[in-house]
Amino acid sequence: MSTRTPLSIEGVVPWPDEVAEQYRKAGYWQGTSIGSRIAGQVERRPDDEALVDGSTRLTYRQLWDKSASCAQYLLDLSIAPGDRIVLQLPNSWEFVALTLACFRTGIVPVMALPAHRRHELTHLASLSEATAIVVADTDRDTDLRRIAQQVAAEVPSIRTVLVHGELSNDATPHAPERALAAGMDTPGRFTDAEYEPTGADVACLLLSGGTTGLPKLIVRTHDDYVYNVLRCNDVTEFDSDTVYLGTLPSSHNFPLACPGILGALFAGGRTVMLPSPAPERALRTIDAEGVTVATVVPAVAQTWIEHQREHHTMTGTTLRVLQVGGSRMPDELAARVEPVLGARLQQVFGMAEGLINMTRLDDDPEVITNTQGRPVSEADEIAVVDEIGEPVPDGTPGALLTRGPYTPRGYFRAPEHNAKAFTPDGWYASGDIVVRRADGNLVVAGRDKDMINRGGEKISAEEVENFAYQIDGVEMAAAVAMPDPRLGEKLCLYLSLTEGHDVTLDDVVAIMNEAGVARFKLPERLVIVDQMPTTKVGKIDKKAMREDIRQRLAREDTAS
Ligand code: OOB
């Protein structure tokens, strides 16, 4: 256990001292770092496989050595403990080695998503004052190195661009490029004893789904994140026989730590990484590697079920648990998981902000199909409240508030937003409308946050509306969720225009592309209205628009 004093990073909202003390006393926070948890497994099973990525297979010892080498490389590049680095890598062993290198040195990774582009990466780098950015060379036809340089041009704190893959031949970069690969094979100099973070140190900055403009950053400490992983490991029953399939972007809290890759490493199991959840390859991999647990969003679960039904790709019976979460899984889909895939369904209703709810593996089938589970920790506090903050009885929908040992008390450097998202006594308002049943399980019944959940990818309505307002002739803009049979929701943009103007979907898409916005945020339908529907108090009535688009789609459906 580290005896250093925790590094102080300005802008972190701590838990109140007395609450922290209580969490330590109760043993929720053990003062250990994420790395030290894995070090134990490296000692115990150095030659067992920890990670598989294509033809690369790494034992615990090999992964540990690569991450030590990578840690030293970062330090040699003058990236110091406490510094933030924006990390955007596809699912790969390098993602894991680098993330562990950060966890072992106290360098703080900002967990960007592979889909993020200039707009998001610039915001993340600037908000976190990152000293480096880590990207892959390309993503299909997009040159990510060029984007990283554009970010470096905008954000002066960026001194290094680390590249996974080929370096570019940019002769005058804003920040010098370095190859990530060069840092992976010289273990030996790095010692954990010198750097090991304390429990109170920041482990990483996760991204919030974002309801107001650009994503907020969520500070996760070693103490709270270790506890998060350990509780999830317990509930999902990870052990050294676990073979975990990671197909969702690994920087997302769900596949990273619920229990995810970190859970498998803590338990001495093996993780198999795939770059995407496309069904054919995923189902084949489950067979080939003897995968026991996989994590998906409902839209992916549906493609796996359809593919398996049609092609019977998966012939083995190793898959024990399919974790599904990130957006609401329709009950009918939930009922099909076990009959078709032969795996127990585990519904997961979680958030990067902390609280994780899960159904238990031995729950009654009715609970598994019809609910999103209950908190993983006895220390998670839950309140379901009405508009004035009064608790509602079980069985009645209300807004979900939560507090607990792995739910931080505020976003990073966002005091104004914190004043709205947290109550004065530290409850986080998740923006989800839930029903708590008498048995304690939660059913997600809706949302009171202005966000579109596109198959688990969260889009802030406000962010998209702000782009629309840059277009000449746009009088009012409202982004709302429209139902989609696959993704659950897609983004539909309503606009009202000033006289004599015409605006098309292409115009909106063009302005967002110009700004370098992640593709998943682009509106997929535009509705022009003479006048925006408003509520009695004169606010834009999004409920009416959601209903309007639902009816339009239904009419089109019957017409076709
Ligand atoms: C997960 O995390 P985030 O931070 O991307 O999004 C959190 C939000 C929740 O507040 C809720 O609105 C929605 O995503 N959500 C669900 C859900 N799981 C998440 N809504 C309905 N049903 C579910 N099962 O999405 C996340 C983080 C850790 C584990 C699992 C999911």
TrEMBL record:
Q: Which Gene3D superfamilies match?
A: 3.30.300.30, 3.40.50.980, Luciferase, Domain 3
Provide the family line.
Belongs to the ATP-dependent AMP-binding enzyme family.
Record PROSITE patterns: AMP_BINDING
Q: Which residues form the AMP-dependent synthetase/ligase domain?
A: 41-412
Q: What is this protein called?
A: AMP-binding protein
* Swiss-Prot/TrEMBL keywords: Ligase
On the tree of life, the source organism's domain of life is Bacteria
Annotated source species: Rhodococcus jostii
Q: Where is the AMP-binding enzyme C-terminal domain?
A: 463-539
